Amino acid sequence: MDGFERRAKTDFERAIETIEPARLTSPLIFSSPHSGSIYPERFLAASRLDPLTLRRSEDAYVDELFLPCVALGAPLLRALFPRAYLDVNREPYELDPQVFEGRLPDFANTRSLRVAVGLGTIPRVVGDSQPIYKQPISVPEGLGRIEWLYRPYHEQLRALVARALRRFGRAVLIDCHSMPSNAADVAGLDVVLGDRYGASAAPGVVEVLETSLRAAGYRVRRNKPFAGGFITENFGAPARGVDAVQIEIARALYLDERRLVKTEAFAALSGNLFSAVKSLARELGGGHNRLAAE
């Protein structure tokens, strides 16, 4: 372990947390990659932004919204580090040259659309394109974050998917996110369900979630503007028995977006999400069911 990996380990004694059910009874898996809220002092000192502004890139409390779903017999994996520090919903080396001092490795993907807008694996900006850093960070610093934080998250997610496949013959990954309510492309929406336009999940999986959420009064759309990020794309493989759906929830439904404080509506939303997931769990049963064939 080099010095920069040790530094990342010191900043985050635990990179991730897996909350297991009392008894594993469902092929469902919940992933909350952007709800981490531990901000190291070194990172805060290196940033030109105040802590509240940095937090605006969080999917604040999304892990807590879905936490009751563990009672349905499914695990929930969450990152403890913040998205502004490292984003696991990206390729491992989707790196922005503007973030770093020095030359990036040849294997780095420096030309993706996400890098172009400053939202690579180690983001350059938060919120309304506000730069994070006072000055570039070193390449070894960035690679250390990937080794200590990114890799454990994806290794654990792969392990949970593999376990579900062994136990139930299929795995259904729900990747949990929130979206700013005032963004132009999500105005008027409460929930966006992303299945990569049908490539990452069997149609019936998304249909059950959409039907339940619409019945609860939510305005739901599929794939626009969020079809699913790297996790959905990388894990979703219906032909192999792995379905992956990204769910984006409008923050105004449960959050004071200015102060990042939960509102009184939090419990009701969490309950409605639980009901939608319970409907899906019922359809999935032990894993082999009609949804796999649709």
Would you give an account of this structure?
By secondary structure, this protein is of the alpha/beta class. Helix content is 34%, strand content 17%. The protein contains 10 helices and 13 strands. It has helices at residues 3-11, 41-46, 51-55, 62-66, 113-116, 139-168, 203-215, 230-235, 266-284, 290-293, and strands at residues 16-19, 28-32, 76-79, 100-101, 125-126, 130-131, 137-138, 171-179, 191-194, 220-222, 242-250, 255-256, 261-262. A 7-stranded mixed beta sheet has the order 1-3-2-8-11-9-10, with helices on both faces. The protein has a two-stranded parallel sheet with strand order 4-7. Strand 12 and strand 13 form a beta hairpin. Helix 7 (203-215) runs antiparallel to helix 9. The longest helix has 30 residues, at 139-168.
**Tally of strands:** 13
Structural class from helices and strands? alpha/beta
The neighbouring-strand order within the major sheet is 1-3-2-8-11-9-10
Form type: globular
Number of helices: 10
Provide the descriptors you would attach to this structure in a database record.
294 residues, alpha/beta, seven-stranded mixed β-sheet
How would you sum up this structure in a few lines?
The protein is of the alpha/beta class and 294 residues long.
